[in-house]
Design a protein that fits this description.
Helix content is 31%, strand content 24%. It is of the alpha/beta class and 226 residues long. The chain has two domains: 169 residues, Glucose Oxidase, domain 1 (3-Layer(bba) Sandwich), CATH 3.50.30.40; 33 residues. Strands 1, 2, 3, 4, 5, 6, 9 and 10 form an eight-stranded mixed sheet that branches. Strands 7-8 form a two-stranded antiparallel ribbon. Helix 2 crosses helix 6. It is elongated, with a radius of gyration of 20 Å. The model has no long low-confidence stretch (mean pLDDT 97). InterPro entries: RraA/RraA-like (IPR005493), RraA/RraA-like_sf (IPR036704).
Length: 226
């Protein structure tokens, strides 16, 4: 088989996927040093859509989906197809037929830096899809690409086996080797934010960090206040 197709790679474990799926993409991006969030152009077709799983990467040429069909044949249940469609919106790379097949195969969802179509039918299927919008044009099936190789998707390097978590805010991708160390940080951040929100609701609305930050930025002089 061509070296452009990588079949075997280590996936983030199912247990880590399960644990990570409990957190918002925003929480995971924050504890990952504000890294790993794909460009906001890649968004859920419907806000309620969520997914979590290991990435199976696909690189295609704009408007051509040949390699996506091949990747679907190689995917394992629980995988997330992460597709570098070159941010092209001139033609949809996937629609109802392919999404139905993905769901039947047990694929956890699709993240695509490109367009899709049949969005109402995909919504009715309740299959999670994150894309760069929609377009009614169909794709070609003529051009070679790559599967399983590192790609750039939405400005982030994605390797097959990395963790993908996506929700209404967008898509987070974390390096497989780092996920176990991020989870305790995510848990603490959720606890801290929950406590802060509770304090705000009791009237403690002032941000403790604001005045020092304004002074450090030169907006306020030492000793000045708002």
């Amino acid at each position: 088989m061509s070296q452009d197709i990588v079949r075997d790679f280590e996936r983030v474990s199912a247990d880590l996927v399960r644990q990570a799926s409990e957190y918002q993409a925003a929480i995971l991006a924050d504890v990952n040093g504000r890294r790993g969030a794909l460009h906001g152009r890649i968004a859920a077709l419907r806000p309620r859509m969520k997914l979590a799983g290991p990435a199976l990467t696909v690189e295609v040429r704009p408007g051509d989906n040949l390699m996506i069909h091949a990747a679907m044949s190689l995917a394992k249940p629980g995988d997330v197809l992460v597709i570098d469609g070159k941010a092209d919106q001139t033609a949809a790379l996937m629609g109802t037929i392919m999404m139905t097949a993905c769901k039947q195969l047990g694929i956890a969802g699709v993240v695509i830096d490109g367009a899709v179509r049949d969005s109402l039918e995909i919504d009715e299927m309740d299959f999670p899809v994150f894309s760069f919008g929609t377009n009614p044009n169909g794709p070609t099936k003529n051009v070679a690409g790559r599967i399983g190789q590192p790609i750039a998707c939405g400005g982030v390097v994605v390797r097959s086996g990395d963790l993908v978590v996506a929700d209404a805010d967008g898509v987070f991708v974390g390096e497989r080797e780092r996920i176990a160390s991020l989870l305790p940080l995510a848990r603490k951040k959720v606890e801290d934010e929950t406590a802060r929100i509770a304090a705000i609701k009791k009237g403690d609305t002032a941000a403790k960090w604001l005045l020092p930050a304004l002074r450090a930025a030169g907006v306020l002089k030492e000793g000045e206040s708002l």
